[in-house]
Structure formats: structure tokens, C-alpha cells
UniProtKB/TrEMBL annotation:
Localization annotation: Cell envelope
Keywords: Hydrolase, Metal-binding, Metalloprotease, Protease, Signal, Zinc
Cofactors, names only: Zn(2+)
Signal peptide start-end: 1-28
Pfam families: Csd3_N2, Peptidase_M23
Domain Csd3-like second N-terminal, residue spans: 182-300
Keyword Cytoplasm: no
Gene3D superfamilies linked to this entry: 3.10.450.350, Glucose Permease (Domain IIA)
Protein's UniProt name: Peptidoglycan DD-metalloendopeptidase family protein
Span of domain M23ase beta-sheet core: 312-405
Keyword Hydrolase: yes
Organism field: Endozoicomonas gorgoniicola
Domain of life: Bacteria
InterPro entries for this protein: Cell_wall_metabolism_enzyme, Csd3_N2, Dup_hybrid_motif, M23ase_b-sheet_dom
Length: 455
């Protein structure tokens, strides 16, 4: 008899077996007279040989471990490459006569995705007003190549981004951080205000702002005389070192026939003359008659009645019969008219540098894009177009391009500043006048603004 030890790798303990040593063959005979079994050879391995095969050198074990690690890393790299290959980015520049529908058809993107994006766009109303030259970005991922992200470059400051959230999309407006650079403009009237101001470097939009401010005080077509002068102070808006083409008028002083006319931007976003009298007309308390009830209030956490999702309600809904006359709540210019899958027929009025209003779900627009409107002018008829649960007017007030609650926001009433307000206003006016009278024409960075989101 001899003992043979087999090394158990699981328990790290030797197992002792007892075997009958024969020459090299063990004959197994069952009980009984017959012999149904054939001979089976059982080679015996010595203990030393077994221990040698089990206890490999440390270097060999380490080499095998390294080889296994390398194989795992190669598999992970292959998986990462496969995941990257499943992500597709599509950049598209909008061309003349493009619509969102034609763009989706051209890029072979699902129409169902387009309608879901339009639903998410109801708070921004941008996708039905795409313009040639604007940039679009689509990101598709996975085996099904679903559109997981879409971006629309609105202008040099703002980018609208939609991200897939389950089966729907959510939108947010991204803003570059901007720098404000002061610019002083001096000029002399030689013919018309437009020609003289253009020669001084003013844009058509800046000239329009000045014309609206003084339209009740001076007739620029009749009252100007050669030799009249003007001084203006602007904040030009930059992204990095690039001028966005946008600016804010802070102060303007006209000398017309020896008489001085001035306008200064106050901290409340309104323009006043040097005596503190507002140059902006009052705002109406409602765009429709007071007899119509509010069916849905401004609510950033509103539970949408159709989609059943939490989505902001950026306006006030007035329950009205179709065809009710909607009015401009203040003077302004119509800047947008469109027909949106979710917002329906809609329009936007820009009242000044600070305030704008939106009218959604209309049945008809009664004005044209670019048209000037006055406070109380009928501009549209209410309706039930777009994604709507019933006839109503969805009305929004935006302050510095952000929606606020129209029913609670304190709008300027075109009044005279009271004595306590005049102290701070006069200090601001003195700062403006000092800069206008300064001989230093260099541009100096004033401050930074904007939301530091990626875009």
C-alpha cells in the first residue's frame, strides 16, 4: 500500500488516497462468475510530479495574471469603441425655405421625434421660426439611433437645447457669459436723424429705439435742424472678444434748436428725462377685458393636463370665446408671428429694451411683423389653435428675455419718480453725463452678465 496526495486548489489541503500498487495495471473483477468488464489501465502519478504541476513558479503565475488583465482591457476598449461608434452627431446649417419638417425629412429623422420636440418647444416658440444661417445639432445614440439631444443656435448669446427624458424631451435655454463694453457716440445732424446717426456708427435697431423714446417730444422728420447735436452712451454686448451685434442704450442727449432733450435708463429698466418723468407710457393691467376669468396661472412646476408631465407654465391663461379681441399692453413693435404645432398661431411684441409679451393659441393676428403698435391697440383675436384644451389666450410677460408672472409683476406706470427715488436716479444721471462729457473715447469693459451654462 502507498499513499498518493492530490492537492485540492479550493481548500488548499492534501487529499490522501490509498491504492493497491501493482505492476502498471490494475485488474478489476466484479463479483460473480461472468466477466463483463474490460481491462482498464490506471497510470499512477507520483506525489512529486503532482506537486510540481500544481506549484508553478511565481513568475509564471504573474505572467498569466498580466495576460488576463491585458485581455480584459482589450475587451473593455473594444466595448468603448463600439459604444462610440453607436453615437452619431449631425451638424446642419439652415438654408432658405427650410422648415423643421423638411429638415427632418432631409436628414431621415423620425417625424414622431419632431412632434415631441415641438411639444417641448412650447415654452420657447423657436422651432417654427428657424432662419437661414442658424446652426442645428442632432445627437443620435444606441442601436436604434434615437435622437437624444438637439441644439438650436438662436443667436450669438443663446442656444436652445433639448434632451431626451424617457419618451419625451425637455428644453432649456443656454447662455454664454457676456461682457458689457461701454461705447460713447457723438454726432451732428446734417440731414436726417437716420443718415446722421448711421454715419456715427449706430445700427438701425439703435436708431429705432431712440426714435420711439422721443416720438412724443420731437418730430424727427420736421423739427431737426442742421447743426443739432446728439450724444449717446451704450453698453455693447460681447461674448469673449466678439461683438454680438446687440447693445443697450443707457443715455441720450439731443440739443435741438438750442433746447436739450434727454433720456436716461434707470435701474427699473425704464427711461426717464432729467426731471424723473417717465418716457415710457403706462402698461395695461390685462390684454383683454377684466370680465374673463383666469383658467390657468403662471406656474413653474405645473402638471401639464395633456402630457401629464411636470412642465413650466410660463404664462397666464384667460378663458375667452374664440374671436375675443386681444390688445397690446403698451407701445411696441411686433417682432414675431408664427404658427406652432403646440403654441398654435402666436405673436410677440417687443415693448422696449426690457419688456416683451407673447400671445399664444390665437385664431388670427391683426398686425404684421415689424409694425408699430400703441398701448391698447387690438393686435389679435383669441382662439384654440395648437395644443389646447379649450378656447383661451395664453399671455406671457418677459423681462430681460425671462418669463415672469404678469399678474404679480410690478410694471412701471409711467409716473414721476418720487423724491426718495430721485436721489438714486440723480446720482445715476450724473454718472452718465460725466461719461458723455469725458474726452476719453476708449471702450472699457463694464461688467459681466449672463448664465454660465455651456452652449
Amino acid at each position: 500500500m502507498a499513499s498518493i496526495k492530490y492537492f485540492c486548489l479550493k481548500h488548499r489541503k492534501p487529499i490522501v488516497l490509498t491504492a493497491l500498487l501493482a505492476s502498471t495495471t490494475a485488474i478489476l473483477w466484479p463479483s460473480g462468475d461472468s466477466n463483463p468488464y474490460s481491462e482498464v489501465e490506471l497510470p499512477l502519478t507520483t506525489q512529486a510530479a503532482i506537486e510540481e504541476s500544481v506549484a508553478e513558479p511565481v513568475e509564471v503565475v504573474q505572467d498569466k495574471q498580466i495576460e488576463q488583465i491585458e485581455q480584459i482591457e482589450q475587451i473593455e476598449q473594444i466595448e468603448q469603441i463600439e459604444q462610440i461608434e453607436q453615437i452619431e452627431q449631425i451638424d446642419y446649417t439652415i438654408e432658405a425655405n427650410d422648415t423643421l419638417g423638411s429638415i427632418f425629412a432631409k436628414l431621415q429623422l423620425p417625424q414622431a421625434t419632431m412632434y415631441k420636440l415641438l411639444d417641448a418647444d412650447v415654452d420657447f416658440v423657436q422651432l417654427d421660426n428657424l432662419k437661414p444661417g442658424q446652426q442645428l445639432l442632432f445627437v443620435r445614440e444606441g442601436e436604434n439611433q434615437l435622437v437624444t439631444r438637439m441644439q438650436v443656435v438662436i443667436d450669438s448669446i443663446h442656444t436652445l437645447e433639448f434632451n431626451r427624458d424617457g419618451d419625451e424631451y425637455t428644453g432649456k435655454m443656454l447662455s454664454h457669459v457676456t461682457n458689457l463694453v461701454e461705447r460713447k457716440v457723438d454726432g451732428v445732424i446734417n440731414n436726417s436723424l437716420y443718415q446722421s446717426a448711421s454715419r456715427a456708427g449706430l445700427s438701425p435697431a439703435e436708431i429705432e429705439t431712440i426714435s420711439r423714446l422721443f416720438e412724443d417730444k420731437i418730430n424727427f422728420a420736421r423739427d431737426l435742424r442742421a447743426g443739432d447735436t446728439f450724444q449717446m452712451l451704450f453698453d455693447d454686448i460681447y461674448v469673449g472678444d466678439t461683438h454680438t451685434g446687440r447693445s443697450t442704450l443707457k443715455a441720450v442727449v439731443f440739443v435741438n434748436r438750442g433746447k436739450q432733450l434727454a433720456a436716461f435708463l434707470n435701474d427699473d429698466g425704464q427711461y426717464y428725462d432729467e426731471s424723473g418723468q417717465s418716457l415710457n407710457r403706462a402698461f395695461l393691467s390685462r390684454p383683454i377685458p377684466n370680465k374673463f376669468r383666469i383658467s390657468s396661472k403662471f406656474n413653474p412646476r405645473r402638471h401639464h393636463p395633456i402630457t401629464k408631465r411636470i412642465s413650466p407654465h410660463n404664462g397666464t391663461d384667460f378663458a375667452t370665446p374664440i374671436g375675443t379681441r386681444a390688445r397690446a399692453i403698451s407701445d411696441g413693435v411686433v417682432t414675431r408671428i408664427g404658427n406652432h404645432h403646440a403654441a398654435g398661431i402666436h405673436m410677440t411684441i417687443q415693448h422696449n429694451e426690457t419688456y416683451s409679451t407673447r400671445y399664444l393659441h390665437l385664431s388670427k393676428v391683426l398686425v404684421k411683423k415689424g409694425q408699430k403698435v400703441g398701448i391698447g391697440d387690438v393686435v389679435a383675436l383669441t382662439g384654440n389653435t395648437g395644443r389646447s384644451t379649450g378656447p383661451h389666450l395664453h399671455f406671457e410677460l418677459h423681462v430681460n428675455n425671462k418669463p415672469v408672472n404678469f399678474m404679480t409683476y410690478s410694471l412701471p406706470k409711467g409716473k414721476q419718480l418720487d423724491p426718495s427715488q430721485m436721489v438714486a436716479f440723480q446720482k445715476l444721471v450724473n454718472q452718465y453725463l460725466a461719461k458723455l462729457d469725458s474726452d476719453d473715447d476708449s471702450q472699457l469693459a463694464a461688467k459681466s452678465e449672463g448664465t454660465p451654462d455651456r452652449a
